[in-house]
């Protein structure tokens, strides 16, 4: 799965917990359960279950994951002509590095990308420069 905006599971869990607490308070105060409240609680539980089944999009070795074949940059299910890639986003935190191609979305509003360990960021940056030539890195 490639996505530049992965669902933040912690935020989702906090939102779910807040919605459940509000629903419980409303139920206690009104002492009735209506269909809308039951559907809301069911959907929140379903979303949490769905997020737990999502695969981890962290790539352990980005140099092996991203390949250049026949003039295309390829990773996951994404394949983009390499000559169209002029800007690459690399955002590094203490633990992770976030890679995306914000100017090359494969679907509207969904630029391809992935997460990898921050310790691999320098090596991956050199690899991209060697393969793509003069590209601009967005931080």
Following the backbone from N to C, one meets helices and strands in this order, namely: HHHEEEEEEHE
Q: What's the alpha carbon Rg, rounded to whole Å? A: 20 Å
Give, in spatial order, the strands making up the sheet with the most strands: 6-5-4-7
Shape: elongated
What is the tally of beta strands? Answer: 7
Structural class: alpha+beta
Q: Specify the biggest β-sheet.
A: 4 strands, mixed
Strand content: 15-25%
Helix content estimate = 40-55%
Question: How confident is the prediction overall: mean pLDDT?
Answer: 80
- How many helix segments? 4
Ends apart, CA distance between termini: 22 Å
Query: Segments where pLDDT lies below 50 for 5+ residues?
Result: none
Summarize the structure.
The chain has 139 residues and is an alpha+beta fold. It is built from 4 helices and 7 strands; from the N terminus they run αααββββββαβ.
Describe the structure.
This protein is of the alpha+beta class. Helix content is about 40%, strand content about 20%. The strands form two sheets. The protein has a four-stranded mixed β-sheet with strand order 6-5-4-7, with no helix packed on it. A three-stranded antiparallel β-sheet has the order 1-2-3. It is elongated, with a radius of gyration of 20 Å. The model has no long low-confidence stretch (mean pLDDT about 80).
